[in-house]
Amino acid sequence: MDRRTFIQATAGITVVSAAPGMWSRPVFAASVGELAVAAKAAGQTKVVLSIGGGTFIDVVKDVFFDPFTKETGIEAVFVTSGDYSSVPAQVRAMSEAKAMEWDIISTTYDSVRAPEFANYVEDMGDCSELSNVVSEGVEGSCLGNSVLMTLGGSVLTYNTQEFPNGMKNWVDFWDVKTFPGPRTLPNNGSPWYVLSAALVADGVPADKVYPLDLDRAFKKLDELKPHIVAWWVSGDQSQQLFRSKEVVAGMIWNGRAAGLRSEGAPVTFVWIGAVFNADTLSITKGAPHPIAAKALLNYFYTRPEAHAEFVKRMNYVSPNKHVGEFLEARVASDIVSAPQNWPTLIRADPVWVAENRQKVIERWTAWVSA
Q1: Would you say 196 and 277 are in contact if contact means Cβ atoms under 8 Å apart?
Q2: pLDDT tens track for 34-71
Q3: Can you say whether the dihedral through the CA atoms of 315, 149, 341, 211 is positive or negative?
Q4: Please, where are the H alpha helices in the chain?
Q5: Residues 289 and 207 placed together within one structural domain of the fold
Q6: Disulfide engineering: 295 pairs with which of 35, 202, 233, 323, CB 3.0-4.6 Å?
């Protein structure tokens, strides 16, 4: 894969030139070059990231971070740290030992204000130091202590053979008379996703869902519970339930729904009222290479063609606001950040989730088990 641009910084001045290939449009991202120059002047020639593993890392390296290294001379080093739930304890141990090894870590959008995470990452304020996050990112890309990395949603997904006229929203999902058949919902540690959908099904506007009215949400869920035949705990399981036709409708991750559709399964999904989910990137307090980390975050938001390539490979979207211009119209209209989809989402309140997480999980666990 050809890189999109080559950034050469000399005496604090950044010169941007274009190379032929996929990344051929010029990028006016001088601040990336300035940060890279400052990082290398401080001896920061690498960035250490703990942001996941598997195919995801292979793709983000190829599309985003290897080009960053080629253009800046700063190496992106990835470490395996387990799932997101294991990261805070590792970061806390490094922090208490005053031996932070990682520069950038990741979590979910609804966890950025959890104390076990927020206490160990830098406050980036309005991200004014990261000019591309501000100018090239989708609305809401800066979260104060994090920036958006990958975007998606938990979407209403249904079998098109069972419902050829379609389901439109969570009201339809709850309407088991008009749309009969077994359903599935997630039980994977974030019950506020399902609870918020229940409130929308009960008439609450998507932008008024938080703070969650738990009594009302659970009452609405009581109506649907007899029709839930499986509480899925993994993306693979959610797909298999549709492949085997054990369910006719459910809430699953949009990437999994899109994957089913690309397989030829009679499945489609609805963005209206989808519950927004995202992964985020943060710089650790005490990061060994903080300037280089800022350069990488700023670079990540450039090159919409690269973001389009990510969409094609992963069925999820990254946060450059111009990505749709580099996708087929059919694909561009089907991503979470498409203009007709973005305003309709249910968005968690990370502060409320941080304050109420344990209480909600305990009540949810008891309700599911009853």
Answers
A1: no
A2: 999 999 999 999 999 999 888 999 999 999 999 999 99
A3: positive
A4: 30-41, 54-60, 66-72, 87-96, 115-118, 131-136, 170-174, 192-201, 214-224, 235-243, 254-263, 290-300, 304-314, 329-332, 350-369
A5: no
A6: 35
Cis peptide bond upstream of 26, omega within 30: no
Cα distances (angstroms) measured from residue 229 to each of 88, 250, 268, 312: 34, 10, 20, 32
Answer positive or negative: Cα dihedral of 221, 225, 227, 233: positive
Q: Which amino acid is at 324?
A: G
Nearest CA to 94 out of 114, 119, 65 is that of 119
Query: 247 and 359: one domain?
Result: yes
Asked whether residue 349 falls in the same domain as residue 229, the answer is yes
Please give the Cα distance from 75 to 237 (Å, whole number). 37
Q: Give the Å distances, CA to CA, from 353 to 111, 136, 192, 363.
A: 7, 28, 8, 14
pLDDT tens for each residue of 109-121: 999 999 999 999 9
Q: What is the pTM of this model?
A: 0.87
